[in-house]
Amino acid sequence: MTGKPDQHQRAESVADRIIACLGGHIVLALPLGLGKANLVANALFERAALDRTVDLEILTALTLETPAWSSEMERRFLQPMTERLYSGYPGLTYAKALREGSLPENVRISEFFFVAGRWLSIEIAQQNYVSANYTHAGRYALERGINVLAQLVAKRRDGADAEYSLSCNADITLDILPALKARHEPFLLVGEVSSQLPFMPGEAVLPAGEFDFILDGPDRDRPLFVVPREPVSLADHAIGIRAASLVKDGGTLQIGIGSLGDALTAGLILRQRRPEVFADALHRLAPHETARRETRAFESGLYAASEMFVDGFTDLFRAGILKRRASDGAILHSGFFVGSKALYQFLRDLPEEERALFQMRGISFVNELYGEEEKKRADRVNARFVNNAMMVTLMGATVSDALADGRVVSGVGGEYNFVAQAFALEGARSIITLNAARWHRGRRQSRLVWSYGQTTLPKNLRDIVVTEYGIADLRGKSDRDCIAAMLAVTDSAFQDELLDAAKTAGKIERDFTVPTAFRRNTPEAVAEALLPLRKEGWCATFPFGTEFTEEEQHLVPALRYLKHRTASRRSLARAVLVSLAEARPDQAERAALERMHLAAPANLRERLYAKLLLRALRRGK
Predict the structure, then answer these.
(1) Between vectors from CA 562 to CA 560 and to CA 566, what angle results, nearest 5°?
(2) What span, in angstroms and rounded, lies between the C-alpha atoms of 266 and 278?
(3) Strands (DSSP E) along 527-595, which ranges?
């Protein structure tokens, strides 16, 4: 580290200096997600591609890419949206090379977490994936001998008084910097300034002297990567309401990303604003439920300890729910964030004293209890760590990261960390949320399974599982009782075959039958239970807004519906036949068709597209 960083206007000059300082052998660490120094990484990659004497290894996670399309219908939707949301965003060159199979022999890329599903078919990415808990990733990077860490930063003041905030990614950087300094080996810390990043205070702030190079040029104003908020289905809302009834006032909360996280947020806000409506919705969803649930509004409020600072926490803050202060005065401790434009704007606009309530910390602080353990235990009372899953077995093992054949969908991330905390903290619980069924290749499949070829969390860590059909409390239960509880939250279309598997294995009595009360686990029953809420304006598809236009908001669930129901030739043929009878579009439907350039079809193919889309708009709500 030097007393004053070298200032650069161009990423190419930073790359030249890095190569000159390190002699051409570079092990580059890039933070997870939003915090990557894309311009510096691209300049180093391009130098290595031109000069094979430069040996470049990149260690990172969650490589963000603009959306890609695999069909004509997807192109019609995504291309205009991509041009609107990502114009000016510099993509990562190494990602393009990985996809094209053009990665130079002197460049290697390893990730410990993927954007879900984006790298399933890229063999080199699958081969170089590093399976790691989030808290161990920094240690592995150190063992690989990293000698450059290049990070996107926010800047405050100039000259000798300049300070830089790690902002969106304090996570691993804060954990490994002390170790890098202590080993007394060549190492460079590079900051790439973004005027769009909010300046997050506290431990995320580093003085200028910590950096060796700063890139602060004309590209500082480029846009940040945006993750639009996803549509929330009725099944998601049912899960969110159920999970919200498990959260104690005065407690601690962690939320995962995506529609289920937004559903939980919506459920908590419904409970806060209309507790009597919340209680009624809970009863309508589970009239046979006898266990006591939390239905009162929040007085003390919640404190958040969540590896990811998701959009939902801003909504909980505005609703007066996220307000309980930890011992250091913060209402949220988190390791990283990436999200919507609204999230970034919210943080930029907060008065400095309020922004200080949201503290970005090292991931070891957030995801583990060791280090300041006494304070953490005092702060993290009645914790509810809520994570999503791909599948759960009937005996409680969770599948969140990979397919049965070993291909990695995403990664372990911090899921194990929070489940371990749930068992280590008094009064804490781990809550796994998932939809009970999904569409796959034109057919519905159960996401509750008898067994699976991969496990992220073993069955000995089973705790609470929530689907749209109920809450299965598995902690401390026998295998038999666990199976019975899981069958009660399974879609009724799959209960019999799963029960047969359990009986064949001798894990439940031969004369066991699923109780009648749980035989109506159907999407129609969920829709019926939530109908009164929908009439009052709750359970919206986009409860907190989104980057999607009004037309796109109608199209997103419709296109998802269409994709599921045309995944096979047989289902496509059936869909085409039934769509031919669709009546003329109304005004809103016509606007959606116009957005897809299908309002005035020019040929037979476009006419079929228009008919299919019209049916999906009417059925996919």
Answers:
(1) 125
(2) 11
(3) none
Token pair of 604 as six digits: 């037979």
| Residue 269 contacts residue 319 (beta carbons within 8 Å) | yes
Measure the CA dihedral 68/73/75/79, to 10°. -110
What is the rounded distance in angstroms from the CA atom of residue 24 to the CA atom of residue 7?
A: 21
Q: Are 406 and 127 in contact (CB under 8 A)?
A: no
Q: Which two tokens stand for residue 376?
A: 């953490």
Q: Which residues contact 461 (CB under 8 A, 6 or more apart)?
A: 396, 398, 416, 419, 420, 423, 430
pLDDT tens, residue by residue, 543-577: 999 999 999 999 999 998 888 888 777 777 887 78
- CA of 476: how far to CAs of 11, 383, 459, 472, in Å? 55, 18, 11, 12
pLDDT the model gives residue 7: 95
Q: Is the whole model's pTM more than 0.70, yes or no?
A: yes
- Give residue for tokens 């510099």: 90
User: What distance in Å separates the CA atoms of residue 280 and residue 257, rounded to the nearest whole number?
Assistant: 27
What does the pLDDT look like over 104-135, one tens digit per residue?
999 999 999 999 999 999 999 999 999 999 99
Cα–Cα distance measured from residue 38 to residue 150, given in angstroms and rounded to the nearest whole number: 9
Q: Looking at residue 602, what DSSP letter applies?
A: -
199 neighbors 347 (Cβ within 8 angstroms): no
